[in-house]
Fold this sequence. Notes:
The chain is built from four helices and 38 strands.
Amino acid sequence: MFVGVNMPTLRRxxxxxxxxxxxxxxxxxxxxxxxxxxxxxxxxxxxxxAQVQAAKKASIYNMPSGDHTAGLARTGPGVVIPRRSPTPxxxxxxxxxxxxxxxxxxxxxxxxxxxxxxxxxxxxxNIATGFAPSDIHGAAGSTNLVVVTNVDIGIYNKSNCGIVSxxxxxxxxxxxxxxSTQTLFDxxxxxxxxxxxxxxxxxxxxxxxxxxxxxxxxxxxxxxxSWNLRRFTLSxxxxxxxxxxxxxxYDYPNAGYNVRRLVVTSNNFGASVYGTLLSIDKxxxxxxxxxxxxxxxxxxFNLAPAVVGDSNASMFVLSPGSGSGSSLSRLRLTTSASxxxxxxLASTSSISIAAWTAPPAASQPNGELxxxxxxxxxxxxxxxxxxxxxxKAVNIGGFARHRLYKLSTTGTxxxxxxxxTTSTCANADHLFNPSIDTNSTSTxxxxxxxSSRTCPSQATAGNVAHVIFRxxxxxxxxxxxxxxxxxxxxxxxxxxxCRWGDYSSTQIDPSSTGRAWGFNxxxxxxxxxxxxxxxxxxxx
Length: 540
């Protein structure tokens, strides 16, 4: 999310956004770049030509051994990264809700999920750097874990959790000559299992101008310690790419991939709020060739790309809108062997889901609230064959609870949903910040969901915890959860709501596909700038 260094400027922007006509509910595609066409399968809208840009190249970066972040953590008040929303006034009110506030949302599905002992590995990963939140995101390769946070990237040995390398993102992308006024933040990392490579995406903000860049990296091997680096210029002076105007703010990049493309979606804030989709030549990135990207805009808000686990050249991109809704908008990106300039984006029929409203802020036992976002998909969908899975937080009886969806790429109703509660805090827990992975279309295949949890009715045991759920990908029965770790501390004094890591991430272990890694943050002190991150490996 947006790095809030100049708070007066941020407040002016939020006030301007609050005065727009956007209501914050389910958004629709902005039709200015679309033209109708006939389709036998469904009523669709075909996208016009996308902007195309060639990314600037930097030399290969080989990560140095050891920890190179020591002494670089900020001192003083730290940097808060406030959440940007299409309805900021409503979000501020939402943070003030009491944990028990009634809701018309549906009840929890089934019995509380039980907790067995099934933790195979727990690794302490990146540590606080003076930013809040951490924006933790992680991936598991063949031998190493890759963890990105504001504002570092760390590589850890999967077997013993030892640091292989940890460097600031500014050092990682330093070949581009990054000025001191530019901050790199909102990172995402993916392990591309079919290709055996890692992908990193990071956006920037400059405190002195409206210049913004999207930095991307593709590893040269499955160890993910040597990288090909690229940079797309989103705005520089008056020139723009993937933005309507240089003064618009490109935010919340979400990343996915298929056999041909790395796909990055964003939320953009300016005279209006709109989404974008950037389709990037993935094989060229891996081979250190010339990399181009095609950007489609304006699109709906809060788009989530997919991680496509097979050779499908199409990717389905979902959005639930923001704040409330009862359907998911669905786009289809069709990637071309001829290059990104021939990729097409089409809107397909929406998917009906149970009505939902945005989750309330999660209360810690001390009553201090933690932000839970606006009901968006915080992670990429998982796409296998004609099926999609994703998970998001919703309001269940005044509590934030994650809701898992199994969907069809062509059908118009949800195939399966599940909203859990935990046996250690039945119907009194907040479950938020979720992410999802599964490895097979088989209905008996395991799905894994990483969440954060608080239980305000308990004492220390109710502090923010990192938990991972697992169960059949199409059943409410036989689900269990594992607590990776519970925070020893609670945040205090955040002034209306503490920022929490806007992401978690979940990934099936490529070396042991019956197990999965979940990445999340924990609280290590009373300040929201006090955090570290965890990677936990669970399975049957």
